[in-house]
Specification:
The structure is a single chain. This protein is an alpha/beta fold and 218 residues long. The chain has a single domain, classed as 3-Layer(aba) Sandwich (Rossmann fold), CATH 3.40.50.300. The chain is 37% helix and 18% strand. Strand 2, helix 3 and strand 3 form a beta-alpha-beta unit. Helix 1 runs parallel beside helix 4 and helix 2 packs across helix 8. It is globular. 42% of the residues are buried. Bound molecules: guanosine-5'-diphosphate and magnesium ion.
């Protein structure tokens, strides 16, 4: 079996900048959520639903969108009235701390309570690169298969919260929720788990309550 390792020094440099970002966020009183998933799990959909709930509570937030190419997601977010900065990684399968530092120049940090970072859609690389975030949110949809924690363990073990999306489709899949929950909790016993449907709305209240209650200066 061949194992591919990411160069240690790349991660060390990233960690230094991530710590600087984290200090800046702390000084400015901004709570930062790094949202990670495979492509199409529903990150942008969840971000929009989260913004709608947060705005109703007077929370000032902004979004950083990471994609390999295009500004489609940032445009979707801006339709909510919230500022969105698009980062195009030009091929990289994850955001890194330096990209976040560059994007922050375009935000008025004195006005924000919270920042949502939508990472590049990928189940592996984003979990390797700290950005300076306060919380790591993993999104996973029931159409992806309940075996994925075994195959892609890092993101499941690194997450603070796991949002299981597309619950409206559950009955049409062979996704075994009990098995999935047992697996992820055996890997990460402190993981907070939410079951939602971004299109049908189920479970979003509980998720939004978690989101709001974790913002320090709201
Ligand atoms: N059936 C269903 N579709 C969803 C749900 N959430 C998102 N989608 C759809 O999944 C696709 C990808 O969603 P998107 O938010 O762009 O995912 P992202 O690539 O992770 O940002 C879109 O067609 C969404 O409408 C859900 O809860 N149920
Ligand atoms: Mg998206």
């Amino acid at each position: 079996m061949t194992e591919v390792k990411i160069l240690k020094d790349i991660l060390e440099v990233n960690d230094v900048i991530a710590d600087q970002n984290a200090k800046l966020f702390k000084d400015k009183g901004i709570t930062v959520f790094n949202v990670m998933s495979s492509p199409g799990a529903g990150k942008t959909s969840l971000t929009i639903k989260t913004i709608e709930a947060a705005k109703a509570d007077g929370i000032d937030l902004a979004v950083i969108e990471g994609d390999i190419a295009s500004a489609i997601d940032a445009e979707r977010i801006q339709e909510t009235g919230v500022k969105a900065i698009q980062i195009n990684t030009g091929g990289a399968c994850h955001l890194d701390a330096n990209m976040i530092r560059s994007a922050l120049k375009h935000l008025d940090l004195d006005k924000l309570n919270a920042l949502i970072i939508e990472n590049v859609g990928n189940l592996v690389c984003p979990a390797e690169f700290k950005l300076g975030e306060t919380y790591r949110i993993m999104l996973f949809s029931v159409t992806e298969g309940d075996d994925k924690p075994h195959k892609y363990p890092l993101m499941f073990t690194e997450a603070d919260a796991l949002v299981i999306n597309k619950m409206d489709l559950l009955a049409n899949t062979n996704f075994d929720m009990d098995h999935f929950r047992k697996t992820v909790l055996s890997m990460n016993p402190d993981l907070e788990i939410f079951e939602v449907s971004c299109t049908q709305g189920m479970g979003l209240d509980k998720w939004s309550t978690y989101f709001k209650s974790h913002i320090k200066n709201a």
